[in-house]
Specification:
- This protein has about 800 residues and is α+β, with helices and mostly antiparallel strands.
- The protein has three domains: about 280 residues, no CATH class; about 120 residues, no CATH class; about 200 residues, no CATH class.
- The protein contains 23 helices and 23 strands.
- Strands 12, 13, 14, 15, 16, 17, 18, 19, 20, 21, 22 and 23 form a twelve-stranded mixed sheet that branches. Strands 1, 2, 3, 4, 5, 6, 7, 8, 9, 10 and 11 form an eleven-stranded mixed sheet that branches.
- Strand 7 and strand 8 form a beta hairpin.
- The protein is elongated and about 105 Å long.
- The two termini are about 40 Å apart.
């Protein structure tokens, strides 16, 4: 312990005496360790931290799948869920969820809440008890049952001030008096960002088997494996398909652990970031190792004296490792401070695309990781200089005043290997970052099919209690649109649902008149549905390709009409005119059935993802088939953000109990859709820039040291007649030889990793020639500058001065 204390004091004095070197090394390590800490905090919070439920590995998501209909993952119909619940023996509890929005009009201004309608076993599936009160009861899921709700912790704190007497109070939800049964703990957030849970009061009817809108979760019984449950559920779905072939032929179910499903989309991106930031830390380690090796030149006499006085190799290695570890710990401490400030910015960069964002932070586990990383880093960059300096040539070191070993062939070779490693690692990071940036640019160049500029959208939900009758909904919408259009600065106004890139989707199977009816529901083509007012296409700037769009005369009591997109018309009626054809979403011979006349064809619009094809899309007139949930869209002549209050005022004047929600410009909706690839590109670009700077500093430092060691040689050559250009060129060539070798190795590494990048790219190959040629050129240009500057400085020294150099 005494020796350790002595080593620590000596290490501190040694670093303090070299403030410039210490500052550079600490800065490099702080950036490398801080970046690793920030990325690890996200990786741990999203991928590694267990879900906040008892035995989270037993919480399973059951997902419908119909590969033949190109539906690998889909929601479940109520009758199928009822059959699963009745027949399955592998689950102790099975629950269904349907996302919804509810208007809260008690205790303040009206507000729209993100809600989840859940069946009675929902809280039992997750094994979480309320913080206050009780959960929802199975008996409350009966159609016509009592109106009850469970609040999220955030809603309880935000809207009700954390009032402990909230349980058994009544609030107004969607115009109906509702009893507050309980409040959930702060960590409970299923489905994500839910503010209130109410009973799912399903009416189960056989004709609902084609209506898939439920998410199903289950808790495995003790001792039941996932494979066993999968086998059982496969058998159940096969039996259901035999009994109901028209609706269930081709449908199956896949069982996935809830946590795995939650993170499967973002896992490869986070692991890519973790790998890239690890490479940057290795580059920083190589840089600091080179700095320490250079510093050994000034300490060789000290080391030789200590060795001559009896210090063994192990004692010398321990001293140098103590110094490197102390350096790393100081860098780690500053890295934690950087990560503490940077992690929230990192999470914000991903927006809502990152799950469990509220659980991400620099906690005890992350701090333990940083401590371990700092210690390993200190050993990693300190071991090579320590071993190098622990076996000095005593005779030459004492005779030459400490200028022997550090400048010898072995030292130069070691530094060249470190530069080679830095360059190779930097090339890998630069190639990956460049591919992601170019992919993002390709994605952002994709046209969504509508005008997103100068347009504001807000969401609105009509409560069933006040707007149960469809004519009343239509009357409200008809009166609202002109008032919105009359607002100052508004050029167009419309209503639609679901809005492109809003996250909503409404998929329906259809039949075409004159074509044989499909044998099963899976054989029917499906289209994404939109319910829009007549002004919708003009407001969004969607071109009309054929026929006309809706008008005010397309009303509830009028002839059923429909507008389709170009993709649907081309697929169903290739080479023919779609206008005048008829299609239906019902079944001929059933009550309420009608054929819909196609009155127009409009351009294709991407609705969910810029990467996806537009697909088949159809639009129904909102004034004929109203939707209680809609988006209001206003196009403006100025920036749209300032109109939110005016739109809210118009809605409030029409109905004082209606809140608006999620005011966003269409530009923002588009930007949110590429938040994840944009975040990846930005972060990788920052890491690539850091890697490039570190590599350039490493190359510059090594060549500067080499020049300093060879000053006498350079002076002698120039005294004998060599011109400065020849000397400078030779030194640049020697420096670039190592860089070129590193570039080659880095390109091979990047090429080997390219297959893993394919799924993250759009519109560009993972082996894009421009990237694999352009990146080395950039790095070589930086390397040339880093080698040319020290070489130029050396050749400007007068030969007489150089020959005196010691």
């Amino acid at each position: 312990m005494k020796d350790f204390t002595t080593d620590l004091r000596f290490a501190w004095r040694s670093l303090w005496k070299n403030p410039a070197l210490t500052a550079i090394a600490v800065a490099a390590l702080a950036l490398g360790i801080g970046a690793n800490t920030a990325i690890f905090s996200v990786v741990y919070g999203v991928l590694l931290r267990p879900l906040p439920f008892p035995e989270p590995d037993r919480v399973i998501r059951l997902i419908d799948a119909n590969p033949s209909a190109n539906l690998p993952r889909f929601s479940t119909s109520p009758p199928d869920f009822a059959d699963w619940h009745a027949q399955s023996k592998s689950f102790s509890h099975l629950a269904a969820i349907s996302r919804d929005n509810l208007n809260l009009t008690a205790d303040g201004e009206p507000e729209r809440l993100q809600a989840a309608r859940v069946s009675g076993d929902f809280f039992a599936v997750l094994g979480t008890k309320p913080l206050l009160g009780r959960p929802l009861l199975p008996a409350e899921g009966i159609p016509g049952g009592p109106k009850v709700a469970v609040l999220s912790y955030k809603l309880w704190q935000r809207r009700f001030g954390g009032d402990p007497g909230i349980v058994n109070r009544r609030v107004i939800l969607n115009g109906e008096s509702t009893l507050v049964a309980g409040v959930m703990p702060a960590a409970f957030d299923v489905p994500a960002r839910t503010e209130i849970w109410v009973p799912l009061q399903l009416v189960i009817e056989e004709n609902q088997r084609g209506g898939h809108f439920l998410s199903v979760f289950g808790r495995l019984k003790p001792g039941v494996s996932l494979d066993r449950a999968q086998t059982e559920m496969t058998g159940i779905t096969q039996r259901i398909a035999q009994v109901h072939p028209q609706s269930n032929e081709g449908w199956g179910v896949n069982l996935i652990k809830a946590q795995d499903l939650m993170v499967e989309d973002i896992r490869p991106r986070l692991l890519l970031l973790l790998g890239a930031v690890g490479l940057v830390l290795l580059i920083a380690c190589a840089n600091v190792a080179n700095l320490l090796l250079s510093r050994l030149a000034a300490r060789e006499r000290e080391v030789a004296v200590r060795s001559a006085l009896g210090a063994g190799r192990g004692r010398l290695v321990r001293q140098f490792l103590t110094e490197s570890t102390l350096l790393s710990l100081v860098g780690g401490l500053l890295g934690v401070a950087l990560a503490w400030r940077g992690t929230p910015l990192l999470v914000a960069l991903y927006g809502t695309k990152i799950p469990r964002a509220g659980e991400i932070g620099v906690d005890a586990t992350v701090l333990a990781f940083t401590l371990g990383l700092s210690l390993v880093t200190g050993l990693l960059f300190g071991l090579l200089p320590a071993l190098h300096s622990s076996s000095p040539n005593l005779q030459s070191s004492l005779r030459d005043g400490g200028k022997g070993q550090a400048g010898d062939r072995r030292g130069r070779r070691t530094r060249s290997v470190l530069v080679f490693s830095e360059v190779a690692l930097a090339i890998v990071v630069l190639v990956v970052a460049t591919l992601l940036v170019r992919s993002l640019r390709q994605l952002q160049d994709v046209s969504p099919g509508f005008r997103s500029d100068h347009a504001l959208s807000v969401e609105l939900q009509l409560p069933e209690a006040s707007y149960k009758e469809e004519p009343k909904q239509v009357a409200f919408y008809r009166s609202l649109v002109p008032k919105l259009a009359a607002l100052p600065g508004v050029t167009n106004a419309a209503i639609g649902y679901p809005l492109p890139f809003s996250g909503g989707r409404y998929l329906l199977a259809f039949q075409v008149e004159g074509q044989p009816p499909p044998k099963t529901l899976s054989d029917s083509p499906s289209a994404n549905m939109g319910f829009v007012s007549p002004e919708y296409f003009a407001t969004l700037g969607i071109p009309i390709r054929e026929g006309r769009v809706f008008s005010d005369s397309d009303a509830i009591d009028g002839e059923g009409v429909i507008v389709v997109n170009h993709a649907l018309a081309a697929k169903i009626w290739p080479g023919r005119r779609a206008v005048g054809q008829r299609m239906t979403f019902g079944t001929p011979g059933t009550p309420g059935f009608q054929w819909l006349h196609i009155i127009g064809v409009v351009a294709d619009v991407r609705h969910a993802d810029l990467k996806e094809d537009p697909g088949l899309q159809a639009y129904l007139p909102l004034y004929q088939v109203p939707s209680a949930e809609v988006s209001l869209i206003v196009r403006t002549s100025t920036e749209p953000g300032g109109l939110t209050a005016a739109v809210a005022r118009v809605v409030h004047e029409a109905d004082s109990g209606l809140p608006i929600a999620n005011p966003k410009s269409l530009d923002q909706l588009l930007a949110d859709s590429v938040a994840e690839p944009r975040a990846n590109a930005i972060l990788l670009s920052m890491l690539a820039l850091l890697a490039l700077v570190l590599a350039a500093v490493g190359i510059y430092g090594v060549l500067s040291y080499s020049v300093a060691q060879r000053t006498r040689e350079i002076g002698l050559r120039m005294a004998l007649g060599a011109n400065s250009g020849e000397v400078r060129g030779q030194m640049v060539r020697e420096g670039l030889a190592t860089v070129l070798a590193g570039v080659g190795a880095g390109l091979l590494g990047a090429f080997a990793l390219s297959r893993a990048l394919e799924s993250l790219l759009f519109g560009i190959s993972a082996r894009d020639p421009l990237t694999f040629v352009g990146v080395p050129i950039v790095l070589l240009a930086v390397a040339f500058l880093a080698t040319w500057l020290p070489a130029r400085r050396a050749t400007r020294v007068e030969p007489v001065v150089a020959l005196r150099y010691e």
